[in-house]
Design a protein that fits this description.
Elements lengths: L1 H20 L3 H14 L7 H17 L3 H18 L2 H17 L3 H18 L2 H17 L4 H15 L3 H12 L4
Helix pairs in contact: 1-2, 1-3, 2-3, 3-4, 3-5, 4-5, 5-6, 5-7, 6-7, 7-8, 8-9
């Protein structure tokens, strides 16, 4: 029974995120709430628990509920520190930085970006590090700070090294078409 419940939670947090990406808000909320209601009551493996917080936080960010998203990113950080799952911590810090950028709290955003980049550099997580540099570049871009180019280039270099052409295109597009 517990194995079935863990599998159901894993499916629901993934489907919740995917539905939030394609604009199916009601379905995303129903699925995410099903996870939130059960997550603290089962014996869960480290990967699933850590990533459930991350995907739920991203779901709520996509839905525009920044408070719920922030709460879930902080839960991810807390869980990652207790379980010593530092990659989850770094990804949650990147998510928090993005939320603070959205709210124009650039000082907090940059601090979270820098901590995430420090951690990801230590563990050599190239994909996550490339994304962290990209998000930092977007923060500097939002500040109209030319430092954004340095971080776009770092992200582009990493995505090129791991042969991710669609990610390289995404970065080039952001560099050439800054938001209004």
């Amino acid at each position: 029974e517990e194995y079935r419940l863990r599998f159901e939670i894993d499916i629901n947090f993934c489907l919740s995120f995917l539905n939030s990406c394609i604009g199916h808000k009601k379905i995303a909320i129903i699925l995410s709430q099903a996870v939130i209601d059960k997550i603290d009551f089962i014996n869960y493996d480290v990967w699933s628990r850590g990533y459930s917080f991350l995907f739920l936080a991203l779901t709520y960010k996509n839905l525009g509920n920044l408070k719920q998203s922030k709460d879930l990113f902080f839960r991810a950080v807390d869980y990652a520190e207790k379980s010593e799952y530092i990659q989850v911590k770094a990804k949650a810090l990147t998510g928090l930085a993005e939320l603070y950028r959205i709210q124009s709290d650039f000082e907090k955003a940059i601090n979270y970006h820098q901590e995430s980049i420090r951690i990801l550099s230590l563990i050599g997580a190239k994909c996550d590090l490339a994304e962290a540099y990209y998000q930092l570049a977007l923060t500097y871009q939002a500040m109209n700070n030319p430092e954004s180019q340095t971080h776009f280039n770092k992200a582009l270099k990493l995505w090129t090294e791991i042969d991710a052409p669609k990610q390289c295109d995404r970065i080039r597009n952001s560099m050439n078409n800054p938001p209004n």
